[in-house]
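2024-03-11 09:14:02 DEBUG pipeline.ingest accepted 1 chain
2024-03-11 09:14:02 DEBUG pipeline.ingest length=404
2024-03-11 09:14:03 DEBUG pipeline.predict start
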Amino acid sequence: MLKKILKSYDYTLVLAVFLLCCFGLVMVYSASMVIASGPKFGENPSFFFDRQRMALLVGAVAFLVTMILPYKLYATKKILLLIVLGSVAMLLLVFVVGHTANNAQSWIMVGARGIQPSEFTKLSVIIYLAAVYSKKQAYINQFGIAVMPPIIFTLCICMAVAIQPDYGTAFIIGLIALSIILCSGMNLRSLGKLILLGLITAVILSPLLYILSDGILSEGRMGRFLGFMHPFEDEKNGYQLVNSYIALGAGGWKGLGLGQSIQKFNYLPEAHTDFIMAVIAEELGLFGVLFVLVLLAYIVLRGFQIARKCTDPFGSLLAVGISSMVAIQTFINLGGLTGLIPITGVTLPFISYGGSSLLLLMASMGILINVSMFTNYHSMYSTKEKKPQNQPARTYQKNYVSYR
């Protein structure tokens, strides 16, 4: 039994995650050693490296636990309720005892370290939506009772995150929810209703957003948000993007060499977090960038393949949500540092500095690999069900297959 289970694990996916984390740890040290050498961080070049290494060790434990723990436990009533209430409580706690950093009250300090609850909310929303929509397959197209309640809950979560304000994470949660909804098995009519309702809601909320333009959407925030459109003309808001362009262009094919970045010498802000790919491009060139992109692409595509092969609706939607999270976060990060979309402060998965983000991703990958293991195990070792002789071939199919 144990031998069959071990044989069912997707070790190529484990290897991809391991390589990205190790590579990210090296690049965090390279990108942060200059700023960490300043008096603010005790003139310790390995300040951020040490913290990221500790986060990786904790993440490795979470990875192993979620990789072994059967994923179907998350859909049980008690565990699901605990996950949902826990994430909501953490988000509310931010407004009471939250720590403000980079103009956002998004952190809860535990000693000298900070925890970002909005990061873990991504996974809780994935688990919640996957569990709810998998249980509603029999009436998934009944808009009022099947579609709307989970969407209303997700919108409340997104608003709570946006108020901090953390627009990037709120936007990611919304897109993850959308990806799960699109794969939940709804027909085109229900999806059309959902799109129409979204447009109506946007029109209704437009005046409210305009009123808040002097507060949450202040001129300074809006300037930073739109600075990507004309970075060379807007010296204040385009400074970070221009230096990102310089780093991307300086690396060429082979790069300047590991540790040889010039932009990290206080020219490029947040070089070890949001803009770490620019440092990778400068030091390791196109080959370094492709190394990261190929591994990330493999994880995402492999995740969607697991979702397609999995015959359990909950496991399939879990795989869709986790794969979408990695894909969306990667696109937003790379889009920001290349000027394709506004800069939102979203980190690059597995690579950027950030303990909460790394811990979330490691736990999520463990769940994805567990879904893959059960899918492979059942396809290789479980006996195939025989079709009843008294039932026509067309009508004999499990209810959960229809969602695909």
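2024-03-11 09:14:41 DEBUG pipeline.report The chain has 13 helices and three strands.
2024-03-11 09:14:41 DEBUG pipeline.predict end
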